[in-house]
Amino acid sequence: MDFFINAAQAQAAGASGGQGIIAFLPLVMIIVVFYLFLVRPQNKRAKEQREMLTKIAAGDEVATAGGLLGKVIEVGEQYLTVEIANGVNVKLQKFQVSQLLPKGTVKGA
């Protein structure tokens, strides 16, 4: 009789091991979705921003994070000089540039 009881307990223990792996499947799926929809696009935008900042040259028209529009006069390693109006130059950090504008967007600068 003890033989049947031990066999039944061994079968029950084996079945619960498979259930543990299935229980983690939703957690793994959430992590995969989180990566695909949040982390990956953010890394892509950051890479595009870095590439844009390395390509800025004098004469380009830019928009800053603070909302200023202007024409790049001088490019340094970490700083830019931007003309925001005739005779008005502003020095700002490169990372403050949010986008390059098409030529002719800024009139009067």
What is this structure, in a nutshell?
This protein has 109 residues and is α+β, with helices and mostly antiparallel strands. The chain has one helix spanning 2-55, and strands at 61-64, 69-75, 79-85, 88-93, 97-101.
Which structural category do the helix and sheet elements fall into? Answer: alpha+beta
Radius of gyration: 29 Å
Biggest sheet character: 5 strands, antiparallel
The tally of domains stands at 2
Q: Give the overall pLDDT as a whole number.
A: 85
N- to C-terminal separation?
A: 96 Å
Quaternary state of the chains: single chain
Runs with pLDDT <50, length 5+?
none
Instruction: Give helix % range.
Output: 40-55%
Molecular shape: rod-shaped
Write the layout of secondary structure elements.
Layout: H1 2-55, E1 61-64, E2 69-75, E3 79-85, E4 88-93, E5 97-101
Antiparallel strand pairs: 1-2, 1-5, 2-3, 3-4
